[in-house]
Amino acid sequence: MSIPIPAEDPRHVPNRAVVDTSAITHNTRVIADSLREHTALMAVVKADGYGHGMLSAARAAVAGGATWLGVAHPASALALSRAGIEVPIFSWLYEPRTAAEILPAVVAEGVEISVGSLAMLKMVADAARQADRRARVHVKIDTGMGRNGALPAKLAAIGSAAREDEFIRLSGAWTHLSAADDPEDPMTDQQVEIFDSACEALEEEAGPIPLQHLANTAATLTRRDLHRDIVRPGIGLYGYPPVPTDLDLRPALTLTSRLALVKDVPAGQTVGYGHRFTTPAPTRLGLVPIGYADGLPRAASGGVSVLVRSDDGDHRAQQVGRISMDQIVVDLGSESRARAGDEVVLFGAAQALAPLDDDASEVAVTPQFVASAQTEGEPEPEQEPAQQPDAAADADGPTEPRDDEEPAPELEPESIGTSDEAPSAPALADLDAAEPTLPDDHPGVPTADDWAAAAGTIPYEILTSVSNRVPRERR
Q1: Which of 123, 143, 380, 474 is buried most, with the most CB atoms less than 10 Å from its CB?
Q2: Which residues are tagged catalytic?
Q3: Residue partners of 62: CB distance under 8 A and separation at least 6
């Protein structure tokens, strides 16, 4: 299998997705401090860490107090494990063809795996036999989301099969809430009721369920009663809570470019495909070399503004006309002193506006890609009782690899460019620093929420849509 490397040298690309890993660490710590006692935090770093870089986001979240990591795909879990991140890892989305190839290695690494059907349970059990190691599974219960997971009527068969298979250990049960971002929606309470009764039925067949988890970011922030054994915040770790909150959560991704051209135009100048915008008066237009091929939603055309950083200060400029594949036009205003080369902030956070020293500005500028670095000889991380079931329950079956066993199935790691080696996690003492405060007269920084509102979508999509063409820069 080969994965193409972006042809552009990132040093010569004007666009940047600047990832502030200290913001992820800060957000994780703030959320962790708000949890009920004995509730663990699973940092969800799926979709390449919501576009922030999976390994960088994972390390930053662990530095902030995350004691679990969650990813959708087993390949992502394997990359996390081989990178030497020593916390339990949970994965939940796979299909038969790739599962047959990768699950044995994933089980051998100690990754915990979701099962949502008898067929999925069999896939995991087969993989565990190949690895000669008991698989820890969490049963996914469909309580109303209608995606992955077993309906309650199917749980008895799953529980019975799990109990009878010596290569399966039931570690948990979980579900996903479909409407937790609307605290007034009764669906959440209905799902919780279904989940609790389903867990009771599952326990009758399979025995005690050590871990239960159902709270995403929204439920973590609004429903302390649903914290249970683990919570699974995702978007909140990256600074975009889906519900109002008093917690100090800071955006961690700032998307920037630079003005390629500035020109004066008369009234009546049309702009962009379909001439949807016509200048009502003489003005100055700026061309920015970034567009929908880089991840900007075309549906947001004409509905957002950007921050232009010029010699005379920071100014907001309205995006006008249709967003093109690799460029947008902004109305700088007739009095603007902006010139080609000035920085443009598409969306981001106040802390990204702070000047950096020369060394910091060169940190980890790489094309966006997935790279898995295998770490050999890593011992299985020791688990706290609150995070993992008592190992004594495994005494009647295979728990650890035997000294004389055949090597576990091993997948060759992909080496694509360089590994995702982030700068070391920020010292915890640095996390107490206040977020930079902008002057009262500052026009403010556009956010992913602004782009989402203009495009009729959600900030999750804005963050995860930033293209591979845009180099990531970690600060």
Answers
A1: 143
A2: 46, 273
A3: 43, 69, 85, 87, 425
